[in-house]
Amino acid sequence: MIPVAVPYIARNSAKYVNEALADKAISGLFGRHIPEFERMFAQYIGVEHAVSCANGTVALHLALAGQNIGPGDEVLVSALTNMATFFAVIYCGATPVPVDIDLDTYCMSVDDCRRKITPRTKAIMVVHLFGQCADMDELTELAEANGLLLFEDCAESHGGTFNDRQSGSWGIGGCFSFFANKIVNTGEGGMVVTNDAAFADRMRSLRSLAFGKKQKFLHETVGYAYRMDNLKAALGCAQMEEIDHLVDIKVRMGQTYDRMLRDEKSLILPATRQNVKNVYWMYHIRLADSAAPHREAILEELRGDGVETRQGFVSYTLQPFADRQVVSANPCPNADKVSFSTFYLPSSHDIEEAQQEIVVEKLGRVLRNYD
Questions:
Q1: How do beta strands 49-53 and 310-311 pair?
Q2: Which of 101, 152, 277, 281 is the 20 to 30 Å CA partner of 183?
Q3: Rounded to 5, what percent of the chain is helix, strand, coil?
Q4: What's the CA gap between 335 and 282, in Å, rounded?
Q5: How many CB atoms lie within 10 A of CB 288?
Q6: CB within 8 A of 51, min separation 6: which ones?
Q7: Residues whose CB is less than 8 angstroms from the CB of residue 39 and which lie 6 or more positions away in sequence, other chains included
Q8: Are 82 and 155 in contact (CB under 8 A)?
């Protein structure tokens, strides 16, 4: 079986984890690797501050809570995403409002975002999907013109750029995941990056139960146990030493699939834009309308032939937990259209070109059955 994703283990992982063990620094309260990982990551993104945390969902919630998003607020969220993006808004007691996508990038439509701003809108949560950056020039301008906070969900875009500027560096807070299949991984883990020192300090307090500064157990507010432990930070330090290589091999993997699949008429491949560096977190493709109804059969045949795949995300508008009144008032036809027609191919850092050739050959053979 060619797996859809295998975690990348950096060369110095064991060395740094053993250092943490030798220091007996295994919690999230102390250890040299936590501040070092934060420093390295902030420097790479090109921002002043990075706040580590337990996972990517926590990063989203921490950023929103750190800006006092709460009941009565609306947050505009790209409809097609891992639902953790919506969950984080709901955790705050705010209302997530789904925004449709552009069909070529699967990222937030600027025009639909503009249409859905109301007097209750407090923020925009942009999602950079599958390594493809949203149109950050226009979204930044839109947020600033309307006095809105701009957050970025960068769980899938480590190293991705728009107009040569890193994802995560545009808004008030960029939220990253370091889950095992991410471009940078610590098994589980997350990070929020920002240029706002007061915001960073507030998130550091919130992630650690909002302990009091003078009397520890006189808590400043309701806090959370959201710390990243030092062992995971040690893994992160090892990953950051190889970050340029990790991004480069992902880009090479994606461009190799682009070349191999460019003549496949049953597939819609990732968009290529001159001003965007797509880092291909996963090689995400869409079936043409004629083949889309057969997606599950196609994926099952591939599995039987030794190729593991994953279904793409399903729009918030189609989720059973979604607020039906909000969905009715904020349709997202493009997100609905692609929800059951996309999937991604094996995309590990260490996948070999020969394996990609096997994947492409088997995919082509299966697709011929559904022409």
A1: unpaired
A2: 101
A3: 40, 15, 45
A4: 18
A5: 14
A6: 38, 62, 191, 192, 193, 194, 200, 203, 204, 207
A7: 50
A8: yes
Question: How far apart are alpha carbons 292 and 364 in whole angstroms?
Answer: 15
324: number of Cβ within 10 Å: 9
Rounded to a whole number, what is the largest CA-CA distance in the chain? 70
| Interacting residues of 328 by C-beta distance below 8 A, sequence separation 6+ | none
Q: What amino acid occupies position 37?
A: F
pLDDT in tens, 167-226: 999 999 999 999 999 999 999 999 999 999 999 999 999 999 999 999 999 999 999 999
Model pTM score: 0.97
Contacts (Cβ under 8 Å, ≥6 apart) of 368: none
- All domains in the chain, ordered by first residue: 13-240 (3.40.640.10), 243-370 (3.90.1150.10)
Report the candidate in 169, 159, 178 with the shortest Cα–Cα distance to residue 56: 178
